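Work Package 3 (structural annotation) set out to generate three-dimensional models for the target panel prioritized at the project kickoff. During this period the team completed the workflow that converts sequence records into discrete structure tokens, so that structures can be stored uniformly alongside our sequence database. As a representative example, we reproduce one entry of 211 residues exactly as it appears in the project archive.
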Amino acid sequence: MTKEEWNNAVIRGLAEAHPDARPELNFTNPFELLIATMLSAQCTDRQVNKCTPALFRDHPNAESISRMTPEEIALYIKPCGFYNTKGKNIIAACRELVEKYGGEVPCDREALEALPGVGRKTANVVLSNAFGVPAIAVDTHVFRVSNRLGLAEAKTVEETEKQLMQAIPKELWSMMHHYIIFHGRRVCSAKKPNCAECTLKDLCRYYKENK
């Protein structure tokens, strides 16, 4: 089996294993997704989804949040952890959205990454899920699973993203992000991967090296 054939087999296997893969952060527009993704750093999507309904109900846009104090936003986001830093970044980002973009979230990577508290992963999530721009957001799950499987062989998030972009057809980048995340959450956990139940084990580099 060539490397390309192996890549395609892994892609098919992930798609078949997780046909229900989708974004798990709740959002109705690019602004909500941006804020939710900023809150999701070192926090579960489930916990973020518990906090954002009240925040977006009372402060539904960038202009409203830009007028909040760190103490005010902390009342909404404290359960997400690191609320002081996240709150300050969210308020600062919203101020820039108001001042530079009329309160709208830009569909531009450079502009997104220039916002306070927004890195490449967050920008990729927003571009992919809010605007339909092909992108692979490498979080801890994607980094771990893609390197265990063998889709990537990298020591950094940045290099992992580059290798995944080479291994996966561009039109599949966004969906593969979700397939890999679901696999990491449901099967290939960080501490104890469930190799016995994994439908990809016969293709997996980690399994072959550790079985």
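DSSP finds twelve helices and no strands in the chain.
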